[in-house]
Amino acid sequence: MCVPDLRLICEIMLVAEGFMEARQLSRKFITLYKLCKELLSKQDHYDWGLRAIKSVLVVAGSLKRGDKERPEEQVLMRAMRDFNLPKIVAEDSPVFLGLISDLFPNLDVPRRRDQEFEKAVKSGCCDNKLQPDESFNLKVVQLDELLKVRHSVFIIGAAGTGKSSTWKTLHKAYQSQGKKATFTDLNPKAVSNDELYGIINPSTRVKDSEFYAWKYRKRSTFKEWKDGLFSNIMRDLANMQGDGPRWIVLVILLFVTVVIVFPVVSQVILSHVFYSIWIGWRH
Ligand SMILES: Nc1ncnc2c1ncn2[C@@H]1O[C@H](COP(=O)(O)OP(=O)(O)O)[C@@H](O)[C@H]1O
Ligand SMILES: [Mg+2]
C-alpha cells in the first residue's frame, strides 16, 4: 500500500501558509504527531492524521499573519500546543507538554490572552450562577478559540462535568459583549431521520392550483417536500438579522454535545469535519 509522506505534505502546507523555515519545522511537527500517537492513551476522539495536521497548520498560518514579528518556531509551537491541548485528557496533558518542551527546548511562549474576553467569560459565569473557576474559564475560552477556526466542535466529557455549562457560559459571555448570540438545542436521536432532515413525500402530489404554475412539468414528477427539524432550524437561523454567533447544539449522548456554527452546517455534515474539546475539569 502506498503511504503518504506526511512530512513532505506538512512542509508544502507550511510553505503555503507563508513559513520560510518550513522544512525544519515540518520535521518537528510530524515527530510530535508520531510520538503523540505512540505515547498518549487511546481515545476515540484523538486524531493524529492528515486532517488534524491540516487544521493546526491553518491555525499556525493565521497566527503567523497576526503576529509577524514573532519567530516562526514560536508561532508553530503555540499553534501546536494551544490547539491540541483542549482535546487532550487530563492524564495525557503532562506527557503532551513534555513532548512539546523536548521538541522546542528553552522556548516559553505564553498563551495568547484576551483580557476583555476573559472578563466577559467571568461575568457570563456570574450570570449563570456558576463558580468562575480558572480551569472552567479556560475551557470556555478554548471553546471560543476552537469555534473561531472550526465549523463544529464536539464537547466530550462524562456526565456532570460541565459540558452544557461551558457552552451556555460562552453564550452569556457573547451576550455580555453586546453580540446577538442565538442557539437552538435539540437531541437528534429523539426523532427519526425523516423528522430530523425532512422528506419528500412519495405519495403526495401538489394541488391543482399550484400545479398550474408548473404546467411545463409532468404532474407525476412533482412531490411534496416536508421540512424536518434541521431544515426548519436552518431556515430560521438564515432569516435572522445581525452577524452574531448562531449555533445549533446537538445533545447526542450523555457525554457528547456538538456545537455547530451556522451557516455552514450542511457542508460540515457532509464532510464530517469535527473537532473535539475534552471537558474534565472537575476531576
Ligand atoms: N463553574 C461551575 N461552577 C459551579 N457549578 C458548576 C460549574 N459548572 C458546572 N456546574 C454544575 O455542575 C452540574 C453539571 O453541569 P452540566 O453542565 O449540566 O454537565 P454536563 O452537561 O456535562 O452533564 C450542574 O449542576 C452545574 O450547575
Ligand atoms: Mg449536559
Provide a concise account of the structure shown.
The protein is of the alpha/beta class and 283 residues long. The protein is built from 12 helices and 7 strands. It has helices at 6-16, 22-39, 50-66, 72-82, 93-103, 115-127, 134-149, 163-176, 193-197, 208-213, 229-239, 265-271; strands at residues 152-156, 182-186, 198-205, 223-227, 246-253, 256-261, 275-278.
Walk me through this protein's architecture.
By secondary structure, the protein is an alpha/beta fold. It has two domains: 6-103, Dynein motor, AAA1 domain, small subdomain (Helicase, Ruva Protein, domain 3); 115-198 and 224-282, Rossmann fold. The chain contains twelve helices and seven strands. It has helices at 6-16, 22-39, 50-66, 72-82, 93-103, 115-127, 134-149, 163-176, 193-197, 208-213, 229-239, 265-271; strands at residues 152-156, 182-186, 198-205, 223-227, 246-253, 256-261, 275-278. The strands form two sheets. Strands 2-5-6-1-7 form a five-stranded mixed β-sheet, with helices on one face. The chain has a two-stranded antiparallel sheet with strand order 3-4. A hairpin with a 2-residue loop joins strand 5 and strand 6 (256-261). Helix 2 (22-39) runs antiparallel to helix 5, helix 3 (50-66) crosses helix 4 (72-82) and helix 7 packs across helix 8 (163-176). Mean pLDDT is 83; it is low at 263-274. The structure holds adenosine-5'-diphosphate and magnesium ion. Residues 130-131, 133, 136, 157, 159-165 line the site of adenosine-5'-diphosphate.
